[in-house]
């Protein structure tokens, strides 16, 4: 049977398993095959100056029927890329036709959030990542993404401080994972079912913890930088976020003196108050923990520097690989 006589579903299945070079050559064989190849060639688009494929943006802006084939779109312009407003206008035009997107990465000029304005149909989008702050353009866009599960916004560690827009309570109702600044987190996380939070900018204060605890689901994974005293912050976490499983903190707190045994004991006590906690890291130090035979969930945490008194306890099972980074972390 001739290839062009295959049903569209089978032709698409054949094209899915061909390398890009073969697809490009196959597209010249007939008009019907060309359409099937086009659907595959533009299904996943990854653009960057290193790939020398910025021209794809212009192609999709001129031919919206091609842009409608895109399911995942990523554009990453490094800090050395200087593109003028006409290019971003073409990018906005191309994005406006991507009605079937499920994943969108826009690592471009942080001031170009207006390229989202014409994206009217975003009902299938489940992953969105950008360098934009949570301004009016981004918040308006998020109002049109009801299926979104993963969000990265306002994630630059050093950024210009600006006002954060407010989302309506009905926006992004299914959001589960967030990466971004503490300011954006305070606006986004309350009243939404977040389970994973990574703060890449801003300060994790006790007030921010309180806002994060207003997630309608239990947050299990938390990564952030804090200027607060670690013991005080952990105490707040143990009161507000009892279901934490993985916690990674970087502290900029100015300790008046080197941490001593009392410091370790305070940290261990607050870690023990988090019953589901399995892994804790503080400024690159993996905190050691051990498991008791008579407990299925609670762990006993390192309460002294360098070694633990728990080693001699026969009721304790050591759960650290002596050849792992965890063992040598402290």
Task: Please summarize what this structure is.
By secondary structure, the chain is an alpha/beta fold. The chain has helices at 8-16, 20-26, 31-41, 55-62, 64-67, 85-96, 136-142, 182-188, 206-212, 230-240, 261-272, 325-328; strands at residues 44-47, 72-76, 103-107, 127-130, 150-153, 177-181, 196-201, 221-226, 246-251, 279-282, 285-286, 289-292, 299-301, 316-318.
Give the SSE string. HHHEHHEHEEHEEHEHEHEHEEEEEH
CATH homologous group name of the largest domain: Ribonuclease Inhibitor
Structural class: alpha/beta
**What Rg is obtained from the alpha carbons, in whole angstroms?**
25 Å
- Which ranges are low-confidence, i.e. pLDDT below 50, for 5 or more consecutive residues? 308-312, 322-330
Mean pLDDT: 85
According to CATH, the fold-level topology of the largest domain is Leucine-rich repeat, LRR (right-handed beta-alpha superhelix)
Any idea how many domains?
2
The major pleated sheet works out as:
11 strands, mixed
Main-sheet strand order equals 1-2-3-4-5-6-7-8-9-10-11
* Number of continuous helical runs: 12
């Amino acid at each position: 049977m001739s290839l062009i006589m295959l049903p569209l579903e089978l032709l698409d299945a054949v094209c899915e398993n061909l390398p890009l070079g073969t697809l490009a050559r196959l597209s010249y064989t007939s008009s019907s095959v060309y359409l099937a190849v086009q659907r595959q060639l533009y299904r996943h688009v990854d653009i960057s100056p290193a790939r020398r494929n910025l021209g794809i943006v212009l192609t999709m802006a001129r031919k919206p029927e091609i842009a409608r084939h895109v399911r995942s779109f990523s554009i990453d312009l490094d800090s050395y890329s200087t593109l003028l407003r006409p290019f971003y206008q073409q990018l906005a035009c191309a994005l406006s036709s991507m009605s079937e997107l499920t994943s969108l990465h826009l690592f471009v000029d942080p001031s170009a959030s207006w390229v989202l304005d014409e994206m009217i149909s975003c009902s299938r989008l489940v992953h969105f990542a950008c360098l934009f702050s949570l301004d009016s353009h981004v918040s308006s866009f998020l109002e049109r993404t009801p299926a979104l599960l993963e969000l990265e916004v306002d994630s630059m560690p050093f950024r210009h401080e600006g006002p954060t827009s407010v989302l309506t309570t009905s926006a992004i109702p299914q959001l589960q994972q967030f990466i971004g600044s503490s300011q954006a987190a305070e606006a986004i996380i309350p009243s939404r079912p977040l389970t994973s939070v990574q703060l890449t900018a801003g300060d994790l204060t006790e007030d921010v913890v309180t806002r994060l605890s207003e997630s309608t689901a239990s947050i299990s994974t938390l990564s952030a930088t804090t200027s607060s005293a670690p013991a005080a912050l952990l105490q707040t976490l143990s009161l507000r976020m009892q279901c934490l499983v993985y916690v990674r903190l970087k502290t900029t707190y100015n300790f008046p003196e080197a941490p001593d045994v009392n410091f370790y004991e305070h940290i261990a006590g607050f870690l023990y108050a988090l019953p589901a906690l399995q892994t804790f890291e503080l400024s690159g130090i993996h905190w050691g923990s051990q498991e008791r035979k008579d407990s299925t969930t609670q762990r006993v945490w390192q309460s002294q520097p360098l070694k633990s008194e728990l080693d001699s306890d026969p009721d304790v099972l050591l759960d650290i690989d002596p050849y792992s980074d965890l063992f040598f972390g402290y």
